[in-house]
Design a protein that fits this description.
The chain is mainly α and 157 residues long. Helices cover 62% and strands 0% of the residues. The chain contains six helices and no strands.
């Protein structure tokens, strides 16, 4: 029972590694590691929720080859990303950069959290603070005292 489970686990973990064709790989292990790291950060434009490193789509393969060509030509990691963003837009990045629309995406959760905390603070303060209109008038206090006492004038509580 354990052997089939172990084989299934190994095949599942090997899936992303199978997407990169051996003919695509760079001869230098350091450059190949850089290419793999960049490929894991880029979105497959066909699959959209997968990196190009894990995708079997033809466009993902073309992008992997392009990344390796740029690295082999001496481009830095940022230069490769910038080239692809210029060509395909910010959508090609799995994690948007914190500027422009990306800045809004990064800041929106914090802003909503602060807004919710402020609203909760105001709601609790309003509920806890007594307002001036809640005081009883002199007639209401006299009527309440009369109800709280029995016929002998002793407190009824």
């Amino acid at each position: 029972m354990r052997l089939p489970a172990a084989i299934a686990l190994l095949l599942a973990l090997a899936g992303p590694a199978l997407a990169v064709d051996p003919s695509e790989r760079l001869a230098d292990p350091a450059l190949e590691a850089r290419a793999r790291q960049i490929s894991e950060e880029l979105r497959c434009l066909v699959c959209q929720n997968q990196s190009i490193d894990a995708s079997d789509a033809q466009l993902a393969k073309d992008l992997r080859i392009l990344v390796r060509e740029r690295i082999a030509a001496g481009d830095s990691d940022d230069a490769v990303r910038d080239f692809l963003v210029e060509r395909y837009g910010e959508f090609v990045l799995l994690r948007p950069r914190p500027h422009g629309v990306g800045l809004v995406l990064w800041a929106l959760p914090a802003a909503l959290l602060l807004l919710a905390a402020g609203g909760l603070f105001i709601a609790v303060r309003r509920r806890a603070a007594p307002s001036g209109s809640e005081r009883l008038s002199a007639e209401e206090e006299a009527a309440l005292n009369a109800l709280a006492q029995d016929e002998d004038g002793r407190p009824n509580i």
